[in-house]
Amino acid sequence: MAATEVAQSRRIVTEIPGPKSRAIQERRRSAVAQGVGSVLPVYVERAGGGIVEDVDGNALIDFGSGIAVTNVGNADPRVVERAAEQLGRFTHTCFMVNPYEAYVDVCEALNRITPGDHEKRSILLNSGAEAVENAVKIARSATGRQAVVVFDHAYHGRTNLTMGLTAKNMPYKQGFGPFAGEIHRMPMAYPYRWPTGPDNCGPEAAAMVIEQITKQIGAQNVAAVVIEPIQGEGGFIEPAPGFLPAVVEFCRANGIVFVADEVQTGFARTGHMFASEHEGVVPDLITTAKGIAGGLPLAAVTGRAELMDAVHGGGLGGTYGGNPAACAAALAALSAIEADGLVERARAIGELMLGRLRELAAKHEVIGDVRGRGAMIAIELVQDADRTPAPEALAKVLSFCHSRGLILLSAGTYGNVIRMLPPLVIGDELLHEGLDILEEAFARL
To answer: What is the pTM of this model?
Structure first.
């Protein structure tokens, strides 16, 4: 059965994980490094739409999308067909040795769809971390400055530089230092936890950031400000209204490159093609990956032509960057997003999920906050009126949901946020069924 023929219904025929998954898991213990974790060790046989089928014949509802990768669904036939056709012609030449048109096609598409009508250039890479690292390289080269500003609760990757940019120690940074220098961390406009309340969060946080940059670093020394327009691993934190535009204005006035890390938020995920668009923010550089190629590894940096072209010849690139099969998949995925109206679909998913989750929050005090945009939704769990994080409650909820065949992910600096990233092609029936399971989990909790 092809992935596109996967029945769109949950089916549980064994315990989760089942015997075949457990057998593979035992083999894994002696073959795969223990540092590689898995949220739910059910081994996948096929997937499509909003369903993941495991080797035991269980069909699970997918609220994870491989961490916001399969926005157009798993094994979309247009993606499969175009990638397979390319694989049949050639798998690799290295764009830096013998280039190929699909790389140029993807760059043209990114230059067209990313925010802003200025002249742009793009480069293609392999991963989100690699994209962020290259954005920092470009900003430093273009400005001649060294300092990079990042934020509390940020996540930017697992390379040495991007670990330094990332805020959370465990599991991302512990034992892996020392990290790159000239990285400066600023407070994040986190409305739910802002001391004077969400209404004051945007302007107060922006003023604090600007003051700290000015006094502690010197704006003239800052090459780039790097921020996720909605923070991912940090807990799906939406910056308070006005915060991002104020930071962008400060960057523009001081020759600082504003970098939007849209690795998790890009490609229709939040109800716009890119999350920066929610407040009309136009980044100087934008990093993308995850949802770009329907599941194949690809990433990019897109930005103002004068910045991107400031780097000397040969200063950007990589052996596998812009792999031809991944480029073909990206062109099909981008076409599917536009043809299938997935930006609008993400908004509809958000309305459905936020409505039900807010009703759920009214019944359970452990749910401190419900937030998100489009199909990027989170609930933050707390123990009391002081908003003490409740990671133990989160573990119980996730365990119950996993046992019932609902794939959910955790997030948050405090380990107390449930994040939901369903494929944008998931049907409403599966959304409601998944939320029914979540409701039951909270009722039992």
So the answer is: 0.96
